[in-house]
């Protein structure tokens, strides 16, 4: 049975899923129709983009190629594959998925930071306060069982346009996961990645 994580909670993936080698990080969200400054906006006017940042032992990115997102769908090592951009968030289940083969990650990558940002948020005057039912979940691809899920409450993130959802990191010889849930005001992915150079 999957663990429902609370903000700041950490789990050992070795303990929860012994022999884990391949995981899928799924992200999902819904947007309710609401009135903005310029009238009614619809759910399909929102475009949330999921990305993963591959960090070294100093919590730094070595290069732009260590950011896997809708314009760079595969890490150079072949260990991480983004399944593509969902422009609307419509439908049930995961809206975007990122696949990770932990055994193929280069030794100097010690942390994977899963982030999401709202595309053109300032231009469209949108924030995570208008997003509901947002979640990040980790699935063991060896048996397709969900290991852990972290659900976010949109009301907590009014005015925030970018968010670190979760981190998967090496701690000595095992992988762990932390539910982060840290929101901030950014104008796109570039402003998120800038803090890691």
Describe this structure in words.
- The strands form three sheets. This protein has a six-stranded mixed β-sheet, with no helix packed on it. Strands 2-14-13-10-6-7 form a six-stranded antiparallel β-sheet. Strands 4-5 form a two-stranded antiparallel sheet.
- The mean pLDDT is 86.
- The chain has a single domain, classed as sav2460 like domains (Lipoxygenase-1, Sandwich), CATH 2.60.60.
- It is mostly beta strands and 197 residues long.
- It has three helices and 14 strands.
- β4 (34-36) and β5 form a beta hairpin.
Which fold name is given in CATH as the topology?
Lipoxygenase-1
- C-alpha end-to-end distance: 38 Å
Strand order of the largest sheet: 1-12-11-3-9-8
The helix/strand class is mainly beta
Largest sheet: 6 strands, mixed
- How many structural domains in the coordinates? 1
Protein name: Stress protein
InterPro entries: Stress/Tellurium_Resist (IPR051324), TerD (IPR003325)
Domain TerD: 1-196
Pfam families: TerD
